[in-house]
Amino acid sequence: MRQSQLFTRTVKELPKDETSFNAQALIRAGFIDKVGAGIYSFLPLGLRVLHKIMNIIREEINLVGGQEVLMPALTPKEAWKKTGRYDDFDALFKLSGLENKEYALGATHEEIVTPLAGKFIFSYRELPISIYQIQTKFRNEKRAKAGLIRGREFSMKDLYSFHVDQADLDRYYEEVKAAYYKIYNRLGLGEKTYLTYASGGAFSKYSHEFQTLTEAGEDHIFVCEKCRAAVNQEIIKEQSTCPECGNAKLEEKKGIEVGNIFKLGTKFSEPFGVKYKDANGQEKLAVMGCYGIGPSRVMGTIVELFHDDKGMVWPESVAPFKVHLLSLGENEAAEKIYNELITKGIEVLFDDRDLQAGEKFADADLIGCPYRAVVSKKTLATGSVELKKRNEAGSELIKLSDLSAKLK
20 to 30 Å CA-CA from 14: which of 2, 96, 181, 312? Predict the structure, then answer.
């Protein structure tokens, strides 16, 4: 991508009511644009990052048998009435259509996926089955003030599993839990992310959250460094020791919830009558689990965790481009390097703009690609480019013939 042709540019002016660092940095760098409180447009650079996060999630969920679907965001009132949540879900956006039809914008999709699965589940032979989507959700948040961390419109990967019994749900639940660890490791969040016990389990004592430690977090959790488990503040009175190893020395930290998993049991299969026939021909209710990760929230969390006073420092796995190539008055030579890197499959943002060096360096630091490669008369005199890692202070001269191998 040539930066001169990029739809967006870095900006200095920020919305006056935007206080969160993740939104400020992403807006300044031209990754997102604020439309309203908790509502953002994803611009070319931001969408590249969001898609990379989604694809990492998609790859790992596919490996545990998830089958991807796409359900509607516009959902009929009747589905929510069956579970009693039309009146009880206080963050639900409600709207009216023609012929006095009433709808809700999808805040979650148990009310849609459960009857959908019921159309295809008849026998124990069809189970277990896992269905997921990556889709936009809508919640009328009262405190939409933390940028991408707490939006009114946001992306969500929601996976739903259906089983013959609790034992099979328990087995699959552990598989998904392991997949989540892989996801966070690939996203660069693994070292700071803890399995956290929380309330909300429908058919078990606890549900589980995945909390990433950062001072920008809204949640208070109590961490066990022995086994890397944690307890949410909301249950600390009833669970004052580590639920994994019994350690009584738990340290209070702030975190951002980047995922959650629940054992639903028959909470939703019962009202929708989702049953199967067992090996003896007896009808039984399917047992369910659900598993969520918010890609847009993960994106905001990554920014909160990986930045310095100059801008963002993206992990390689989700960076918009691997290398930011800066031409300092040497566009012809830089163009050749750009084309060579592209042919080698290396993602390059090429700053070919007619700007001063200081402006280019400042924008490169703000955007935060893992590598910055500078082409100038000085570097070309030695047949080299100056290569610098975004998360390191020093740089080095790399021969042009060695650059693509260095960046692979």
Answer: 2
Q: What is the pLDDT of residues 189-245, one digit of tens each?
A: 999 999 999 987 555 678 999 999 999 999 999 999 899 999 999 898 888 999 999
Residue 385 DSSP class: E
For residue 131, count CB atoms less than 10 angstroms from its CB and return exposed for 0-12, middle for 13-18, buried for 19 or more.
buried
Give CATH superfamily name and number for 3-308. Bira Bifunctional Protein; Domain 2 (3.30.930.10)
CB 137, CB 106: distance < 8 Å: yes
* Interior angle at CA 342, CA 341 and CA 344, nearest 5: 65
Kindly report the backbone phi and psi dihedral angles of residue 332, in degrees, each rounded to the nearest multiple of 5, phi listed first.
-65, -50
Separation between Cα atoms, residue 237 and residue 35, nearest integer Å: 41
CA dihedral 261, 262, 263, 269 (to 10 degrees): -120
Domain ranges of the chain: 3-308, 323-407
Helix H or strand E segment including 71:
none
- Helix 44-63 / helix 166-187 crossing angle, nearest 10 deg: 140
Whether 149 and 289 have beta carbons less than 8 Å apart is answered as no
Count CA atoms within 13 Å of residue 271 on its CB side.
16
- In this predicted model, what pLDDT tens digit does every residue of 141-199 receive, in sequence order? 888 878 999 999 999 999 999 999 999 999 999 999 999 999 999 999 999 999 999 98
For residue 85, what are the CA distances in angstroms to 78, 88, 90, 258, 328? 10, 5, 9, 24, 59
C-alpha to C-alpha distance for 341 and 354, rounded to whole angstroms: 22
Contact 302, 258 (CB under 8 A): no
CATH of domain 323-407: 3.40.50.800
- Spell out the residues 6+ positions from residue 197 whose beta carbon is closer than 8 angstroms to its own: 206, 208, 209, 229, 230, 231, 232, 235, 239, 243
